[in-house]
Amino acid sequence: MLDLILPLQCGGCGAPATPWCAACAAALEVGEGAPHVLTPRLDPGVPAFALGRYAGPRRQAIVALKEHGRTDLCAPLARALAFGVHRLIRWGVVPEPLSLVPAPTRRSSARRRGGDPVTRLARAAVAGHSGVAVVPALAMRAFVRDSVGLDSRGRERNVAGRVRLRTVPPRTPALLIDDIVTTGATARESVGVLRAAGVDVVAILALAHA
Q1: What is the pTM of this model?
Q2: How many Å apart are CA 83 and CA 89, to the nearest integer?
Q3: E strand intervals along the chain
Q4: Is 24 among the domain residues?
Q5: What's the structural domain count of the chain?
Q6: In 38-69, which positions are buried (b, 16+ CB within 10 angstroms) versus exposed (e)?
Q7: What is the pLDDT of residues 71-130, one digit of tens each?
Q8: 166, part of any domain
Q9: What CATH number does residue 63 fall under?
């Protein structure tokens, strides 16, 4: 009956009768060479990595989670993020113990989405991992607009001075976590705020890069 009223569709490709199909699961798998090194247009000052391009099932799943309330897609996205975090640890890019610091989001967006999806994904990704903690240390000040449609300079001006520290993470190295890295404006501002508070930010990891 529920399928007739609210048809179940894959969050990656729209295939019927499944929340997440096998083909999209395969597309979201973290390949042997991933996470990939990024060179954002605005240098964040630390190494930046992404699990893949903001396209195909990865893009559709992120949009569905953030904008359409598809919280069921948290599991496959968090699984991919977990692989990325553990691989950076294995490669020696980031150490343990480690703090995951979610990139800040606008308060209006978080309210509309029922919470911050990046924080939700980070917590699900490292649940049960005693050496890694999630610390929501950053927030956006008021009057930050949606960055969609802004160029690099516009994104930079939009967030300049607008990221604030909510709490200081423990004195462990920090990995900044984001859903999408586009120009690197938010990442650079976030790294600057954390470093000004004495936090050792070692890298950035995003689900996707645009």
Answers
A1: 0.89
A2: 10
A3: 36-38, 48-50, 98-102, 132-134, 138-140, 163-165, 174-181, 201-209
A4: no
A5: 1
A6: bebebebebebbbbbebeebbbbbbbbbbeee
A7: 999 999 999 999 999 999 999 999 999 999 999 987 766 567 677 999 999 999 999 899
A8: yes
A9: 3.40.50
